Amino acid sequence: MKPRRLGWDWWSELKLGVLADYLQRFTTAVRGKSKGANYLDLFAGSFENERRYGTGTFAGSSQIALTTEPTFTNLAFFELPGPAARLRVDIRAARPQDHRWEVVDGDCNKEVTPALKGLDDVRWAPTFAFLDPRGLQVAWSTVQTLARWRRDKKTKVEQWILMPEPALARVLGLRGVRGRRSADRLDRLFGCRDWLPIHQGRRAGWLSAEEMRAEFVNLYRWQLEQELGYRTTHALQIVNTDNRPVYTLVFATDSLPGDRIMGHLYASAATRTIPSMQARAQAARRLRREDEAGVRRLPGMDELEIATTTSKRGSYEHEPPWEPAPIVDDALDLDMDEADLDPDEIDWDVSPYTS
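Request: output the structure for the sequence above.
Response:
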């Protein structure tokens, strides 16, 4: 596997900013009616994240959840063994008197069922789950398990899921054994092969790259609502500095307040936060390139240019998912003129594939 670049881009910080805003509103809403609230983080990552280009740090999702007020009463952070050990050390160092949490070592797709069994005594408490994978690691069976854990309650587990839909077409372009493995991963991601008509439509030229991405996200939302019974879903596409899609944040809830709150936060992110952070990133990149070219500027002009840069505002309006196209022909053609790459070697944050 090729080495990872250091630091996280602005869209990762934006995503966690939305998380922080929502968690504060979630606990405010539920703790007025319930004595407890649970938080599940299935790809917890680091306690503290370094920004790209050495410009400081920002809180990871575990730190955000642990510092949310009103507080969560129970928190579970899932990570692979190495990162899990580091996360455990960092939390203990930062919050030595805090005993509300546990770190679960291992693949969350395998560990979520026993972990939830261990939380059965607090299943009565409203629960929020954050699924923030680096690629195509989330199995539909995991999403099902979370949804079914509180299915006899007024509201199921709220789920906020990162879906890297720009990557799906790329991995379907892989040939031979690797291509077959990628198709199997999509079966695992969706829990079925209902994604096949989307792939076929793109291959036949019926769907543009943008339409294909929208269809993948729509299929996921449709299954959350129709198969798992969530009352509503929201989808916010995140773009990079060049305005290319990186991933979509899909939210599933049974709660009317949750529906309204996330709709408001998505609208705020689309119309204000994303354009502002994107414009600042564009200005910072331009200044870095000028520095590399030896361009000299007056003292203080860098900060002024970044601070005053603006960008065109986006928009957000909730639309329910539409019924996906049925499978008519189950033939799967994976022999495309693409490099035979291993999906594990693709860095989704750095290289969002759009065709």
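The domain at 10-271 is CATH 3.40.50 (Rossmann fold).
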